[in-house]
Design a protein that fits this description.
Elements (H helix, E strand, L loop, with lengths): L2 E9 L9 E4 L2 H5 L4 E9 L5 H14 L6 E3 L8 E4 L6 E8 L29 E8 L4 E8 L5 H15 L51 E8 L1 H9 L7 H17 L6 E9 L17 E4 L2 E3 H6 L2 H13 L3 H13 L20 E5 L15 E7 L7 E6 L9 E8 H10 L5
Parallel strand pairs: 6-7, 10-13, 13-15
Antiparallel strand pairs: 1-6, 2-5, 3-8, 3-14, 4-5, 7-8, 9-16, 10-11, 10-12, 15-16
Helix pairs in contact: 2-3, 5-7, 5-9
């Protein structure tokens, strides 16, 4: 499949203030991985022209200025911030023509080949990068990469919805908020929980602790579909009510552990991403733009997990997530204040590319992908990460297979032999 680059331009920062603005990174921004996240959105025709899409993007950047800013670290690396209105920054926009029809790459099975549909992630100079891939049939794939320390998935979703509305000439009814007042530490600050080694890694580390890399043929990205009917079957086995996320995560954890063939006495855990906005008291504004994700860590012995029920696994997930509440969040905010003079590096930066025997589970179930509408009659037909070069990542995504179907698509990254075994038992209820 030939992909021809037509143009590559930088959209400057939109409507900068008269004076330079520095927005400090919060403890949640610093907790996010220091890398770009790449997601592809595929639309069937007819779609607006690239000119219309870029014009709407320019207007959107005026409302979401941090996406076009610059990430700056002071010499001491203790107080990073996003600079807005200074020279530099902007958003990279690449336009391509694809000598193929959109159907040829659907349903966007993550693979190394899909990375061609978004700008490179390595040494990216801009916090937001966009690639507009026009197919011969009129279909469009928008490849978007965003630096995780600028915004989490919920925030990026609000940006995409606003971008679509501006392309259609509509008014924005919810503006992004940058007020960090609710994240002010207590007086005096106090840590009620231990955060070293959980969220942040004490420094320095020996050179052997630095992560290595994986070759693209060592890890397999796969997509598995769970219908709404199948999820109801799992829920029917629960003695108490659990969310779709909890029962499906418990089901996946149990069967993935079986597929990996782990030692029965080994400890396995999941790093579960939890949206902290509604868990603060009072709750953070839904329009807050940035990061506010923490991690919960359900854990169990392999034997306990594989021989127990899915209900047991779902309960472990439920209980771990439930511990992320206002008190824990306030403790983490105060931890940043107490360690104001220390370099804070998230533990995830030192985990390396193999998570086994553990997992990372991210839920995109609450992200309103289907509300991203650029007009002209085109509609979203697929979305997915391009390719994740880390073993042990699980992403739950709402299916696009049918309105009201209620199913979930799961993207997993496993070693090839584990992937083959998991596919055989992916829907096992034993």
């Amino acid at each position: 499949m030939e992909i021809h680059v037509v143009s590559s331009t930088v959209i400057p920062q939109g409507l900068p203030p008269t004076e330079n603005t520095k927005i400090p990174l919060t403890v949640f921004d610093m907790l996010a991985s220091g890398m770009h996240v790449a997601v592809l959105h595929a639309y069937i025709p007819p779609m607006p022209t690239n000119t219309a899409l870029k014009d709407g993007l320019k207007r959107a950047l005026g409302l979401f200025p941090t996406l076009a800013g610059q990430l700056v670290e002071n010499d001491d690396r203790c107080h990073p911030y996003i600079s807005i209105g200074d020279n530099g920054g902007g958003v990279l926009v690449v336009e391509t023509n694809v000598e193929s029809e959109l159907v040829d790459i659907l349903p966007l099975e993550p693979s190394p080949e899909l990375v061609r549909f978004h700008p490179p992630l390595d040494e990216a100079r801009h916090l937001l990068q966009v690639q507009l891939n026009q197919f011969s049939c009129g279909g469009l794939v928008i490849g978007l990469t965003s630096h995780h320390r600028v915004a989490d998935g919920k925030a990026i979703s609000s940006f995409l919805i606003a971008w679509g509305k501006l392309v259609r000439g509509l008014q924005i009814d919810s503006f992004p908020g940058y007020d960090q007042t609710m994240l002010i530490p207590r007086d005096p600050p106090r840590c009620d929980h231990d955060h070293w080694g959980i969220e942040f890694q004490p420094l320095p580390l020996p050179p052997s602790s630095l992560p290595s890399t994986l070759n693209s043929n060592e890890v397999h990205n796969m997509r598995v579909h769970y219908s709404g009917e199948f999820i109801l079957k799992i829920k029917a086995r629960m003695p108490t009510k659990h969310s779709t996320f909890e029962v499906l995560t418990g089901h996946l954890w149990k069967n993935l552990t079986r597929a990996r063939g782990l030692d029965p006495d080994m400890l396995t855990q999941i790093r579960v991403a939890v949206n902290g906005r509604p868990r603060l008291w009072p709750a953070a504004p839904t329009e807050y733009f940035g990061n506010m994700v923490l991690n919960a860590f359900p854990r169990a012995r392999v034997k306990e997990l594989t021989e127990g029920s899915v209900a047991d696994a779902a309960r472990l997930v439920h209980d771990a997530v439930g511990r992320i509440e206002d008190g824990y969040i306030r403790s983490l905010i105060d931890f940043r204040a107490i360690n104001n003079g220390n370099v804070l590096v998230p533990v995830t930066d030192f985990e390396g590319p193999v998570l086994c025997p553990n997992l990372e589970v991210d839920s995109w179930l609450g992200f309103p992908f289907q509300e991203v509408d650029f007009g002209d009659g085109g509609s979203l037909c697929a979305f997915a990460p391009s390719w994740v070069p880390v073993e042990g990542v699980v992403i739950l995504m709402p299916t696009l297979r049918g309105v009201g179907e209620g199913g979930v698509d799961v993207m997993l990254t496993l070693f090839q032999d584990h992937a083959e075994l998991f596919r055989q038992i992916s829907h096992s209820l034993d």
